[in-house]
Amino acid sequence: MTGSLCTVFQVLAERTAFRHRRSHETGVWLREDGYTALNLQDLWSFRSAGLTIIDFSPFVESRETGADWEWWFEDNSGAFGAAVQAKCLKDGRFDFGYKSKGGSPQMQRLLDYCAHMGDLSPQYCLYSGLSDAELLAISWSCPSFPSSASAWGCSLLDGIVAAQLLGSGRTELQYVLSRSWPWQCIACCNSGAQSPVGMATRAFSLGQRLRAQSDGGNAAFDVSADQDSPAALAPSMQPALPNRIARLLDSTGISQLSRGQLLDEWRGELPRAVVVVR
Predict the structure, then answer these.
(1) What confidence tens digit (pLDDT) does each residue in 45-73 have?
(2) pTM metric for this prediction
(3) Which residues contact 133 (CB under 8 A, 6 or more apart)?
(4) Between the CA of residue 15 and those of 12, 19, 39, 51, 139, what are the distances in Å?
(5) End-to-end C-alpha distance for the chain, whole angstroms
(6) Which of 5, 62, 114, 277 has a C-alpha 20 to 30 A away from that of 204?
(7) pLDDT tens digits, residue range 134-143?
(8) Beta carbons of 205 and 191 less than 8 angstroms apart
């Protein structure tokens, strides 16, 4: 795959939208982990010197983690990180209240994971393949690109906003996507700046815009033992990549690390993958 990182994010959203529509046409469905694996494979194929993807899935049981991936963006201003849970549009809504058999609610695990790590903002990556009628029902906020069904193939939603939507019973696509932004904005948009900005600055700015969609309503789950307000787990810039990420990038490879070593670095809880963009 060639082109800028912006173009790659756009192409992956388009592919996801196509695959989602094909699921309806063929009855052969991809789950969230299938879309995520395909997108991370394709993103890895971009082979940018500033892009690193490390797969933890051999070390992680899905019921044990709240994050499908943890991604970090770094530039001269610092670093921004988020834990991401993927969710597919199905029957016109997003199942934020999903609970695996014998496990805890998926959303609670995501929020707990971010609170436990202390340096991450919770996000959802939403996969969809919209019809023309569905597209018309969604508010479009991005000033840099026109609205299109392909752009909504992959979109980002703040985790606290998702918890508020679940708490109010508004999980239909028109409510959810109208509070989301296409994920290409994390690689394409300068957030109103007159000159290009770095990756961390762009990602942090998008994180703030996603959180600004909060309506102050009650979240469906507690954010942590001592914080359950929409201000909790707010997007924040860190002065540098956290030590666990820096050491992972400096290591000789994931194959050289044991599950025990990884669990030590991640305080006993692993995401399924780590993505670092610099």
Answers:
(1) 886 778 999 888 777 765 566 789 999 99
(2) 0.92
(3) none
(4) 5, 6, 9, 20, 22
(5) 18
(6) 62
(7) 998 898 878 8
(8) yes
